[in-house]
Q: What sequence folds into this?
């Protein structure tokens, strides 16, 4: 082989190694912060965000003490408004407060928080109870992704603190392309989501997903992307949000 070709080949190898090393040296907190910046989801702290998911209207309202989460829906001409704020759940029927049993209040609170949580990703990956770990790089047929594992501290991690999440962030755009999580409630299981559409509203990128479950009996959440690419996941539903609005507000906090 001519010396010029040997030199060129060596330079290409060095460039590839340099790029790989650069990615390997990235801190997981910096990766997540870049993902938040790229998605614009830090605006959840500065804007009233409203959207429709299935037959309910959801709204997050920034306050000086965190986000107030709401959902509105109607049953038999009765207008319901549920609110979750600082861990406390309240329900109103036709604008009148009603008392809800603690067991049901916990279920409603978890349901509200779950819907808002997924919409607010990756912003919520900086929650105090979140424990993040960079796992490595993985690929699909076209792109390469930062793979991040997320678990939760028991203190502040909510009722589902034992859940484990994995995120695959595009190594160029830093947007979420895939996510998977294992859960223990209702017998436990694994869910895998593939982002199928991006909608940008007033600086925030919202994602719609296809929602899958594994067909393998002993599937592992950490192997979700590879198993999905092998065709061992089956489609359950689509997670789509509509009528999205983002209204920035000025908070005057001491």
A:
């Amino acid at each position: 082989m001519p010396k010029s070709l040997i030199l060129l080949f060596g330079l290409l190898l060095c460039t590839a190694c340099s790029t790989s090393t650069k990615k390997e040296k990235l801190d997981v907190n910096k990766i997540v912060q870049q993902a938040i910046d790229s998605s614009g989801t830090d605006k959840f702290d500065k804007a009233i965000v409203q959207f429709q998911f299935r037959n309910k209207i959801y709204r997050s309202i920034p306050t000086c003490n965190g986000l107030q989460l709401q959902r509105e829906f109607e049953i038999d001409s009765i207008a319901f408004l549920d609110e979750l704020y600082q861990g406390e759940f309240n329900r109103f029927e036709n604008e009148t407060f009603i008392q809800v049993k603690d067991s049901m209040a916990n279920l409603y609170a978890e349901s509200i928080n779950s819907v808002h949580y997924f919409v607010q990703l990756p912003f919520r990956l900086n929650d105090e109870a979140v424990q993040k770990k960079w796992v490595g790089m993985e690929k699909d047929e076209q792109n390469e992704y930062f793979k991040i594992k997320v678990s939760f501290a028991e203190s502040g991690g909510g009722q589902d603190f034992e859940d484990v999440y994995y995120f695959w962030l595009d190594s160029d755009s830093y947007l979420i392309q895939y996510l998977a999580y294992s859960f223990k409630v209702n017998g436990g299981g694994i869910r895998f989501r593939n982002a199928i559409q991006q909608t940008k509203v007033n600086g925030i990128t919202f994602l719609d997903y296809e929602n899958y479950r594994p067909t393998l009996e002993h599937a592992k959440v950490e192997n979700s992307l590879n198993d999905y690419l092998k065709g061992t996941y089956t489609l359950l539903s689509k997670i789509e949000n509509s009528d999205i609005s983002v209204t920035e507000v000025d908070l005057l906090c001491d």
